[in-house]
Amino acid sequence: MPEMPEVQGLVEFLRERTTGLRVTRATIANIAALKTYDPPIESLKDAEITGVERHGKFVDIATTTGDGADSGPHLVFHLAKAGWLRWYDQLPTTLIRPGKTPIALRVALSDGSGFDLTEAGTKKSLAVYVVRQPSEVPGIARLGPDPLDPSFDRDTFAKLLAGRRTQIKGVLRDQAIIAGVGNAYSDEILHAAKMSPYALAAGLSDDEIDRLYTAMTETLAEAVTAASGKPPADLKDAKRRGMRVHGRRGEACPVCGDEVRSVFFADNSLEYCPTCQTGGKILADRRLSRLLK
């Protein structure tokens, strides 16, 4: 799943290449991906792109219609678990066959470029919205603070954790508490903080909160820097290369050399280093647990 650093990379890429261009066509190939009907997707036609921003893991493309209104519709999308953006300097002219392609949305731009939103697999969760304001998207409206916002300091973080008798892995992934962190980067943050994913948020000491805050902000900032300037086709590989424990089951921990282990759940897994994070304890398989969903 694309998380904050990869989404930020996409935002910077799109901002640089699309600002000032007009949308000549927006075609939905998977009708289930479109979650709104007012404004209609046809309202994007001839709108000029004025900017691209990120809200958590959502990409927000702002437009103006030039009809005297302050702004035009926003094209907002969330790539979910298996979605991605495919960019073309010259958009293909082939027709999209609904139901016969992984393409969910195609956007054509006035200089001949454009992009597809694609989704692999059978479980379709990619979401597209056309709205007047980003806050009309339910997922954006309930987002917690962005951990890389300058106002998000250590005390703000500590207040979010206070009283939460929830495992810290789940807290980091909860978009209503902290925006933008998902399964992969929560693994990386907890490894950098030398903390068990099962530690309770409310039980963390001041020193542990300090370590976790530093690990979170530094891990995310480094990943955003690594993603910056890369085209969409390179972002996934850059993410994989930057992982220390996530997706590295069976490999040696780069810090201590112990074997990276996994805990499996119904629809995902977490990775951790026993020596660095759990005092050498091997965590039990929790495939039937719902604690971290």
CATH superfamily of the largest domain: MutM-like, N-terminal
Helix and strand sequence:
HEEEEEEEEHHHHHHEEH
Count of individual domains: 2
Which fold name corresponds to the CATH topology of the largest domain? Answer: N-terminal domain of MutM-like DNA repair proteins
Percent of residues in helical segments?
25-40%
CATH architecture classification of the largest domain: Alpha-Beta Barrel
Unreliable segments of 5+ consecutive residues = 288-293
- Major beta sheet, specifics? 4 strands, antiparallel
Structural class by secondary-structure content: alpha+beta
Major beta sheet, strand line-up: 1-6-7-5
Separate helix tally: 8
Instruction: Give the averaged pLDDT, no decimals.
Output: 93
In quaternary terms, these chains amount to single chain
Domain Formamidopyrimidine-DNA glycosylase catalytic: 2-126
GO molecular function, one term: damaged DNA binding
Family: Belongs to the FPG family.
Catalytic activity: Hydrolysis of DNA containing ring-opened 7-methylguanine residues, releasing 2,6-diamino-4-hydroxy-5-(N-methyl)formamidopyrimidine
